[in-house]
Design brief:
By secondary structure, the protein is of the alpha/beta class. Helices cover 40% and strands 16% of the residues. A hairpin with a 4-residue loop joins strand 5 (118-119) and strand 6 (124-125). Helix 1 packs across helix 3 (62-80) and helix 3 packs across helix 4.
Amino acid sequence: MGISVLTPPSAEDIVETVLEFPDNRLLIDLCGEFDRNLAQVEHQMGVHVLRRGNRLAVIGDKGAREQAAAVLRSLYARLESGRGVAAGDIDGAMRMGRPVGEAVGIDQGELFQTGVELRTRKKPIEPRTEAQKAYVANLFQNELGFGIGPAGTGKTYLAVAVGVTMFISGAVEKIILSRPAVEAGERLGFLPGDMKEKVDPYMQPLYDALNDFLPSKQVEKLLQEKRIEIAPLAFMRGRTLSNAFVVLDEAQNATAMQMKMFLTRLGEGSRMVVTGDRTQVDLPRGTPSGLAEAERILKGIKGVSFNYFTSKDVVRHPLVGRIIEAYEADESTV
């Protein structure tokens, strides 16, 4: 059953849009416990939402209330499809400005026209911004994809989610995740344990992402079987990576030589993703970043995509986005 929109004809002068929802049980889920979902919409969209029986009245200026009404309709449609609504889903609906969450397969011809859901073993993952949506689409469509932008924008998280989705579907046989262990430097030898124990702290964000998408026992088993590999960039030398989904994280800390070495590991049936933040280069002064060089050289090459993120794409705590904007503003005045 559809949702009745009961906006009066003279909408230009009316500050209220009323939405009617036919299923009261779904409306309860839409509002959330103690109406916290409505409070989130109110706070972030600058409107007031009043519940009247099986109707919601959205009060505010015309543009804001129309956007808020669209968000509420999309979230209700999500509930009608049998899926839940959490704070992140509300945030995603508000950022996207249209209904989100339509599940797709990687073989569909028109990817992500209304939304995307990446199927993992633990939970579905959805892009929450237009930039994230375009990024995910490009990772499916191109053999090599670059995700460049500040921390918290989902570059690595979404890349690993795409890798897990392709692995589960059988499109690739293994997942390989790598980072330059540049922070370790000469201190690496002084850390306790064998080589794996020495480098694992630098790889932990990649383990964290994997454990978000796959049961921990399965991750452990796949690591033992070498169907998932997590290793420093230096360990990629001399290999040909075939039928694999390969992610290089923190690529701004790869030297030009390391980046070329990594990119030329691409084997038959493989996909590669390179993620990085140009503002967080930890290489020694005077050493050029391989990410910047690759961006300059590979622009326009067929099969290579570049996606860029800004502070508006930050999907961590809202304060993270404001912190990034403050730093960017300060740097522009120096």
